Amino acid sequence: MPVKCVCGICGKDFNVKPHIVKLGKGKYCSKACDIEARRRGMVAPKGKNHSNYGKKFSTELRAKLSKAQLETPNHSNRGKHHTEETKQKISEANTGRFLGEKSPNWKGGTSKEYAQLRTTFAYRKWKRAVLGRDDYTCVKCGEREGVVPHHILEFAYYPDERFAVDNGVSVCFNCHMGLHDWTVSTLDGGTSQFLEDIG
Q1: How many Cα atoms are found within 13 Å in the side-chain-facing hemisphere of 121?
Q2: Are 180 and 152 in contact (CB under 8 A)?
Q3: By Cβ atoms counted within 10 A, which residue in 55, 72, 129, 149 is the most buried?
Q4: Quick one: residue 79, left, alpha or beta (phi over 0 = left, psi -120 to 50 = alpha)?
Q5: Of 128, 138, 129, which is closest to residue 170 (Cα–Cα)?
Q6: In this structure, are residues 139 and 146 in contact, taking their beta carbons and an 8 Å threshold?
Q7: Contact criterion met (CB below 8 Å) for 182 and 195
Q8: Are the C-beta atoms of 193 and 184 separated by less than 8 Å?
Q9: 3-state SS track over 135-191
Q10: pTM of the model
Q11: For every residue of the chain, which 3-state class applies, written as one string?
Q12: Rg of the chain's alpha carbons, rounded to an integer?
């Protein structure tokens, strides 16, 4: 749902997406009003108008500024890498946090369940595992550009196999498009033509 705002320059009412307001933006109704606000000094100057524009800082000062930036609490995780266990905990803590009605871009439930599942940590982990196992190479033609993981047993019909690494295979864009045309359906438990072709 858009948020109603009032322009800080002309007083006109206008609508802004909620996440824009949360970022502290959406104060002016148009580019013209934004430019006028900058002219009046209501917005922090950028580019040539900034007080540090064109100044050359010494190596010592740059090192000092960099160190101060790294020691700021907001940057306490900069340069650190999370373990897989920590990533899993973060994922579980955030799962559902911005899903459904909690999302600022909620439109009444238009996404299907499996579209949401493809954005989870478990799906990303499965994707990395499949691509890594196949060395980011299409198993059908050997292409290394635009390689994506493909579910052998359909994602929508086999929920227990969605994140099984053995149920994934790496294919390039062209082979992936062809797969959806000529893979024999596995709904009846039969073998796919694809598996026969790649041996």
Answers
A1: 13
A2: no
A3: 149
A4: left
A5: 138
A6: no
A7: no
A8: yes
A9: CCCCCCCCCCCCCEEEECCCCCCCHHHCCCHHHEEEECHHHHHHHHHHCCCCCCCCC
A10: 0.43
A11: CCEEEECCCCCCEEEECHHHHHCCCCCCCCHHHHHHHHHCCCCCCCHHHCCCCCCCCCHHHHHHHHHHHHHCHHHCCCCCCCCHHHHHHHHHHHCCCCCHHHCCCCCCCCCCHHHHHCCCHHHHHHHHHHHHHCCCCCCCCCCCCCCEEEECCCCCCCHHHCCCHHHEEEECHHHHHHHHHHCCCCCCCCCCHHHHHHC
A12: 25
Structure tokens at 102: 């909690």
Residues in the chain: 199
Q: 99-137, pLDDT tens digit by residue?
A: 777 777 777 765 677 777 888 899 999 999 999 999 999
d(CA 134, CA 165): 11
Centroid of chain to Cα 162: 20
Both tokens of 130, joined, read 């499949």
Q: Which of 1, 66, 10 is nearest to 36 (CA)?
A: 10
